[in-house]
Amino acid sequence: MLGWFETNEVDAFAQEVISELVKRLPPTSLEAPDHKTGDRVHRMTEALSGRVREFARARKPNLFKRARLGNRVKWGMREAGYAEEFVAAFTGEFLILITVASRG
Q1: Cα separation, 14 vs 33, whole angstroms
Q2: Using an 8 Å Cβ cutoff, are 61 and 98 in contact?
Q3: What is the three-class DSSP state of 32?
Q4: Tens digits of per-residue pLDDT, 40-95?
Q5: What gap in Å lies between CA 3 and CA 88, rounded to an integer?
């Protein structure tokens, strides 16, 4: 029962996601989008989605851990300087992906 609230792995994974996101798609690259921005977003999404699926399948995070993970990613993105619209869209898609992947 106590394992339900253990979040060390979730917190570490959230930090990995934020670090990878900032490395692949810095917040400044979204300020003045050009013709390459869409490609960078697509490549970043593809790279992260595999890691998210792997994490979800291996750890099967419960509702509390998924919520914490989404919250940590959202606040990490805000602190990194991403626009609120991008944060909301990315976090929503991230949570959908991790929920679906953890169920099967």
Answers
A1: 26
A2: yes
A3: coil
A4: 888 998 999 999 999 999 999 999 999 999 999 999 999 999 999 999 999 999 99
A5: 29
